[in-house]
Amino acid sequence: MKIGEEAMPAEGIGEHSTSVRTVLIVVSDLRGHPGTTVGEIAARTGLPQSAVSASISRLRSVDAVITETDPRDRRRTIIREAPEVSERVTQVRDTPIDAALAAALGTEDPDRVSETVTVLEELAARLIPGLRA
């Protein structure tokens, strides 16, 4: 996760009260539990509810998630991934991790970095159900 944080593009996103890591944890939980609430994410992740709320706000600001009032209980807000991939999500997904990975590996060898990326992709495909390429 730390390497992913290092690779994350930060241009033009401004200052936020939540860390990239917190947002990534919230996104990961949301993918595994669509149609969830801030309180449920907080309970599952152990993050403070305020940090989850700030992360959801940050994700809403880049159109990565949508929120809607629960029709069965109007006090609850349901959170889902946005049906369309936002420009920010596309930018994040398209950002290579090569430089951050090279730094973590302590190498400038592009072949070694490429081999490591391949191994990580294979591992992710095996461990993450429904992984999006």
From TrEMBL:
Domain of life: Bacteria
Short name of one Pfam family: MarR_2
InterPro entries in alphabetical order: HTH_MarR-typ (IPR000835), WH-like_DNA-bd_sf (IPR036388), WH_DNA-bd_sf (IPR036390)
Domain HTH marR-type: from-to ranges: 30-76
Gene Ontology MF: a single term: DNA-binding transcription factor activity
Signal sequence region: none
Name by which UniProt lists this protein: MarR family transcriptional regulator
Source organism: Nonomuraea zeae
